[in-house]
């Protein structure tokens, strides 16, 4: 029998092999990431593993996929459900991007600490929004919805196996093999010719819309390794002559603890794709949609921590608007140094980031009663705090990554009222609840605090 987490790990590994064959530059990215990680481990020792063991970090990937209809999204939820992955978070990239990115997204990932430690594979999953009149007029919307209704992304056999895996939380070896084969195949780039005129019609609205709704299949857009020093990785990729996007998205490189998520990518590559012209002839063409992203993960922040992050982003934006030509990264570093606590302890004390707590093995043992209050326990050495890794995404970074890799701006008509898609709507489309990432981190933190309270005889006193 193959358990869900083994299925998840095997799927991530096979997807990586498949994608490496399709996009050799991805393999370069993985190699460079591995070398950077080895160097960081050598230089920083155990400290480098504070946000995940080297085993976890080396195997860690996130994928990105894009689908067209609520029905397709529901099927994706069944396939990832088989792998023990749940939809977490709602990201509205229509609002986060300046150019036309007509999608809303969620991320499928494991949610329990133990499962994340076994294999944290996650997939950023975007759904096209044809009902949004800022992008699609009534005629194009109708054509698009008809086109999407006529395609099948996932064979029934794959979905049936997925349901069995989800129900039993495991699959017999032969079924597991078949499931993995079909699941990986569903995300391969299709060789079927692309209808050139239809693709171009959608591309005028948005390159993302064309990538999703211009073809009869789906594919993995990118697979992102995790790196322990993303600035160093950026330099090494650029030194190899690989064209990177202009920036590293997310928090700046600064003196304090790593927070949230920093991401960058190499630019979307021209990939050969067969094209069918209106007179029926098939020619060879190329499309530029898939890119190579890489990321560094930091500590998960609380709602207050996130509000601070968003406020600082705004501050940097304001500075940049006032001073054209400003070095954004340097400005962000200054802003962060002025506003963000520079130690984990202070982040914990101010309730800005999530930690799990354990009773310290070298705690005071002189019969004193421990103080009530986790901050005081930490300060007096009764407990230790371990940071929780940020397992999610950032809408503004995601929009930045989308945008940096689009060939054109597309078009959007902001005089139209946008169609309302929210987390509740997405839950309906998925047929399961979109989970709140803050609630998940908080649960992990609270469980550890309850355990500390029991061990120190402070039941009911640590809130
Ligand atoms: C997703 C873009 C966003 C991330 O990691 O934030 C993203 C896509 O291109 O489909 O990958
Ligand atoms: Ni990504």
Automatic annotation (TrEMBL):
Pfam families: HGLS (PF07063). The keyword DNA repair does not apply. Its cofactor is Fe(2+). It comes from the Bacteria. The keyword Iron applies. One of its GO terms (molecular function) is dioxygenase activity. Keywords: Dioxygenase, Iron, Oxidoreductase. It is an enzyme of class 1 (oxidoreductase). Its EC number is 1.13.11.93. Belongs to the 2-oxoadipate dioxygenase/decarboxylase family. This is 2-oxoadipate dioxygenase/decarboxylase.
């Amino acid at each position: 029998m193959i358990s869900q987490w083994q299925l998840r790990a095997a799927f991530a590994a096979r997807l990586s092999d498949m994608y490496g064959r399709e996009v050799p530059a991805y393999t370069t990215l993985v190699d460079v990431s591995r070398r950077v990680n080895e160097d960081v481990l050598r230089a920083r020792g155990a400290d480098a593993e504070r946000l995940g063991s080297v085993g976890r970090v080396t195997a860690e990937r996130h994928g990105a996929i894009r689908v067209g209809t609520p029905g397709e999204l529901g099927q994706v939820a069944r396939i990832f459900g088989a792998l023990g992955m749940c939809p977490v978070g709602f990201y509205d990239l229509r609002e986060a991007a300046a150019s036309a990115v007509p999608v809303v997204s969620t991320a499928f990932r494991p949610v329990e600490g133990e499962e994340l430690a076994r294999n944290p594979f996650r997939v950023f999953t975007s759904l096209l929004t044809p009902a949004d009149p800022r992008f699609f007029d009534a005629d194009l919307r109708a054509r698009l919805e008809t086109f999407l209704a006529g395609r099948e992304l996932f064979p029934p056999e794959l979905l049936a196996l997925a349901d069995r895996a989800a129900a039993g939380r495991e699959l017999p070896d032969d079924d597991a093999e078949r499931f993995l084969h079909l699941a990986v195949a569903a995300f391969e780039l299709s060789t079927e010719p692309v209808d050139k005129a239809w693709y171009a019609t959608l591309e005028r609205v948005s390159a993302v819309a064309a990538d999703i709704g211009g073809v009869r299949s789906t594919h993995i857009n990118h697979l992102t390794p995790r790196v322990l020093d993303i600035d160093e990785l950026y330099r090494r990729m650029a030194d190899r002559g690989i064209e990177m996007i202009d920036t590293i998205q997310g928090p700046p490189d600064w003196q304090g603890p790593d927070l949230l998520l920093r991401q960058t990518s190499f630019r979307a590559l021209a990939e050969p794709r067969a094209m069918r012209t209106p007179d029926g002839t098939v020619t060879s063409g190329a499309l530029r949609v898939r890119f190579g992203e890489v990321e560094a993960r930091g500590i998960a922040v609380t709602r207050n921590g996130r509000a601070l992050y968003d406020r600082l982003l705004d501050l940097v934006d304001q500075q940049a608007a006032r001073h054209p030509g400003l070095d954004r990264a340097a400005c962000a570093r200054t802003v962060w140094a002025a506003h963000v606590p520079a130690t984990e302890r202070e982040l914990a004390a101010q309730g800005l980031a999530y930690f799990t707590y354990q009773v310290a093995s070298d705690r005071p043992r002189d019969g004193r009663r421990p103080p009530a209050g986790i901050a005081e326990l930490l300060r007096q050495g009764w407990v230790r705090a371990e940071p929780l890794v940020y397992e999610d995404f950032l809408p503004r970074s995601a929009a930045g990554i989308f945008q940096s890799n689009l060939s054109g701006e597309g078009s959007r008509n902001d005089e139209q009222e946008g169609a309302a898609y929210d987390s509740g709507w997405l839950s309906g489309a998925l047929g399961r609840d979109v989970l709140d990432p803050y609630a998940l981190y908080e649960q992990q933190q609270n469980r550890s605090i309850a355990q500390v309270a029991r061990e120190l005889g402070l039941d009911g006193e640590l809130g």
